[in-house]
Amino acid sequence: MKLAPIFAAFAMVASPLAFPSMAAAHTRVVASTPAEGATVAGTRTVTLTFNEALLPPTAAASIVMTAMPGMANHSPMAIRNFTTAWSNGNKTMTLTLTKALAKGSYEVRWQAAGADGHRMNGTVKFTIS
After folding, report:
1. Phi and psi at residue 86, in whole multiples of 5°?
2. What is the pLDDT of residues 111-126, one digit of tens each?
C-alpha cells in the first residue's frame, strides 16, 4: 500500500486548519452605508469599508438597480452617474452619485485586492424607499 496518496489527502485537509489566518486574511466588507439589507429614504453616497487597506488599481465597484416599485420583471440596470474616492488609509471606498438614487432595490458589486494580492468580490444589497 502506498502512503503518498494518504499523506497528500491529509495535507489538503489539514492545511486550512494549520493556517487559519491565511483564509481569514482575504479582503471583505466590514461595514457599509447603507448597511447590508437596510431600507433607507434616499442617498447620494454609498460607502464600503473593508477589513484591510486595498490596492486602489485593483478595486472597482458598480451600483445596479435590481428592482423598481411597480415594474414586474425589471431587468438589472447599471447606475453610472457616480465618482469614487478613497479614505481611511485606502480602507474606505465612497461612491458619490450626481443624483439621489430612485426608489427601488440595489446591489453594490465590488471587487478588490489587499496586500496578499488575491482579488476578492462581493455584493452589498439595500433598498431605497
Report:
1. -115, 145
2. 999 988 899 999 999 9
